[in-house]
């Protein structure tokens, strides 16, 4: 009996793959479905070593690491790679990989799927640069209406894209694998720990969180991640003499982060309302906190607030003013009666918000190619 050849799917993203949890989960699900999976990204000068994955990976080394030249070079390199590679399906992650994938899919006559991790053209970095934003919007307007299979991270963004371009976007939220982050019943024995994990970029409420620590005693803030404003935040910590209250871990792998998250007594997801992308944010970190059964403090933005209201697993803050933020943090950390209720609710939420349930949407999309 002839051996059945697996369908090959090439997944591409502009990250260096080390901490891109969403892409890792999608690739794992595709592998489980029976695809031969190759994940393509880039390797930066300071990239951490990539730990072994069950699927194949490849990282491009490029001359430019940011700015317009990076995006042009990456897409040219990616297009050439896709054009000369054997594949059955292409999966583009975010708008910055879509041009190369779309062109290759048309020339080679291969199926294309689009995963939009965010409302790309409305990120703060583009809102303040209208000419660059205009270029990305034009690319989106030309390509997205021609895509048949697409999904994104939340209902709000899916609705916007569907109404704007007539492309039906399904929703695959950034929830973790069940049990991927274990709850820790011993946390808080040596003081309280507040955790922010994720990109250290503008609009994440991190400056306000640091200033709120001036109001705290017996509380430590851990900022686990890296990004453009990390040097600025480190300078602020030194100026305010808060070195004993705030720790920067730098960038961590998925595996390293899963060990830190359960140690926290509170997880922060306090994005500022800086454009539609942040307004409709539903980030990985929120669901990672929940899986680790860590209570959360989130901004009063619709998608995140809806999760907190539904499961009653933390607090919603209407202001990021440091003194107000400090009061909200204290309320979560030191209200013993509310803690008992949250602990029970977090157990329920952690069981319901799992990748094993969410990946059913992926199965509905990718079964078309098996």
Automatic annotation (TrEMBL):
It comes from Maribellus comscasis. It comes from the Bacteria. Coiled coil: none annotated. The chain crosses the membrane at residues 63-84. InterPro entries: Glyco_trans_1, Glycosyltransferase_grp1. GO terms for molecular function: glycosyltransferase activity. Pfam families: Glycos_transf_1. Keywords: Membrane, Transferase, Transmembrane, Transmembrane helix. Signal peptide: none annotated. This is Glycosyltransferase. Residues 185-345 form the Glycosyl transferase family domain.
């Amino acid at each position: 009996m002839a051996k059945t050849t697996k369908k090959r799917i090439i997944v591409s993203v502009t990250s260096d793959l080390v901490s891109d949890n969403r892409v890792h989960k999608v690739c794992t699900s595709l592998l489980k479905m029976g695809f031969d999976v190759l994940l393509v990204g880039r390797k930066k000068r300071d990239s951490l070593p990539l730990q072994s994955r069950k699927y194949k990976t490849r990282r491009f080394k490029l001359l430019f690491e940011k700015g317009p030249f990076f995006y042009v070079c990456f897409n040219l390199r990616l297009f050439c790679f896709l054009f000369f590679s054997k594949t059955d399906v292409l999966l583009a992650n975010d708008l910055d990989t879509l041009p190369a994938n779309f062109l290759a899919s048309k020339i080679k006559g291969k199926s294309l799927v689009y995963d939009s991790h965010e409302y790309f053209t409305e990120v703060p970095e583009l809102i303040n640069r209208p000419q660059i934003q205009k270029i990305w919007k034009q690319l989106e307007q030309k390509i997205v209406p021609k895509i048949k299979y697409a999904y994104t991270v939340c209902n709000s963004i899916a609705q916007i894209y569907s109404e704007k371009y007539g492309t039906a976007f399904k929703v695959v939220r950034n929830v973790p694998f069940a049990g991927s982050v274990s709850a820790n019943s011993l946390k808080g024995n040596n003081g309280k720990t507040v955790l922010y994990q994720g990109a250290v970029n503008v609009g994440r409420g991190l400056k306000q969180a640091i200033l709120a620590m001036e109001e705290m005693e017996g509380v430590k803030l851990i900022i686990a991640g890296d990004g453009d404003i990390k040097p600025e935040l480190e300078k602020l910590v030194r100026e305010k003499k808060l070195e004993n209250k705030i720790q920067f871990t730098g960038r961590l792998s998925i595996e390293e982060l899963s060990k830190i998250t359960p140690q926290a007594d509170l997880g922060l997801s306090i994005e500022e309302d800086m454009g539609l992308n942040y307004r409709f944010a539903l980030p990985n970190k929120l669901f990672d906190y929940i899986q680790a059964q860590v209570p959360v403090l989130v901004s009063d933005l619709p998608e995140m607030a809806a999760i907190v209201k539904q499961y009653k697993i933390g607090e919603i803050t209407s202001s990021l003013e440091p003194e107000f933020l400090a009061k909200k943090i204290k309320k979560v950390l030191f209200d013993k009666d509310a803690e008992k209720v949250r602990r029970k609710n977090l157990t329920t939420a952690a069981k319901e918000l799992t990748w094993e349930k969410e990946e059913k949407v992926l199965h509905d999309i990718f079964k078309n190619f098996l």
